[in-house]
Specification:
Order of helices and strands of chain A: EEEEEEEEEEE
Radius of gyration of chain A: 13 Å
Oligomer: heterodimer
Helix content of chain A: under 10%
Largest interface: A-B, 24 and 21 residues
Number of strands of chain A: 11
Distance between the termini of chain B: 40 Å
Strand content of chain B: over 45%
Distance between the termini of chain A: 33 Å
Largest sheet of chain B: 6 strands, mixed
Structural class of chain A: mainly beta
Number of helices of chain B: 0
Helix content of chain B: under 10%
Shape of chain B: globular
Chain lengths: ~110, ~110
């Protein structure tokens, strides 16, 4: 079984709809992250959480919100989706205690029409 | 903020060729990772290499932190090596918020 899973893997929605992307991990890591990738570009950080009670904005948080329901679960919401939020979204995890390796889920391909 | 530059942006090679991908970064970093994004979009961890040299089969990587660059070597390329290779750095100032380069797109022709 995959250590970091994301649901759904693909989603098509319409402008103005609320949508939630979910991430679960079995690695036992404290830290979780949400990134987006636009075509031809690297990943950019949306939000990150160092533990259940610690959530922080990343580089491009406008239009997004997150919820850390448990150590193993971190959800990303688009309150009112817009077409320029069409992208590939990745969840990642890492251990705590200084700089460590990040591990990525398989990604969610989101299309906003 | 820190700048992460990868070169070349695109590389087309015949199967069996060797290649070197470069990652330059503009400030000191805590760590550096290399990833391979396959044609299906999945990100695969290749190396976690804040400094020194590591090898894994046909791939190896070297990071010279004092000179702010890292190199990824791919020997005897196979078509399955095709995809985009990213380096990502964790700047000293960022507390584990890694910054990605824009990637090198590698195409291996049979």
């Amino acid at each position: 079984d995959a250590d970091v899973t994301q649901t759904p893997r693909n989603r098509i929605t319409k402008t103005g709809k609320r949508i939630m992307l979910e991430c679960s991990q079995t690695k036992g890591h404290d830290r979780m992250y949400w990134y987006r990738q636009d075509p031809g570009l690297g990943l950019r950080l949306i939000y990150y959480s160092f533990d259940v009670k610690d959530i922080n904005k990343g580089e491009i948080s406008d239009g997004y919100s997150v919820s850390r329901q448990a150590q193993a679960k971190f959800s990303l919401s688009l309150e009112s989706a817009i077409p320029n939020q069409t992208a590939l979204y990745f969840c990642a995890t890492s251990t705590s205690g200084g700089p460590t390796e990040q591990f990525f889920g398989p990604g969610t391909r989101l299309t906003v029409l | 903020g820190i700048q992460v530059e990868q070169s070349p942006p695109d590389l087309i090679l015949q199967e069996g060729a060797n290649s070197t991908l470069r990652c330059n970064f503009s400030d000191s970093v805590n760590n550096l990772q290399w990833f391979h994004q396959n044609p299906w979009g999945q990100l695969i961890n290749l190396f976690y290499i804040p400094s020194g040299t590591k090898q894994n089969g046909r791939l190896s990587a070297t990071t010279v932190a004092t000179e702010r660059y890292s190199l990824l070597y791919i020997s005897s390329s196979q078509t399955t090596d095709s995809g985009v290779y990213f380096c990502a750095v964790d700047p000293y100032s960022s507390a584990s918020k890694i910054i990605f380069g824009s990637g090198t797109r590698l195409s291996i022709r049979p």
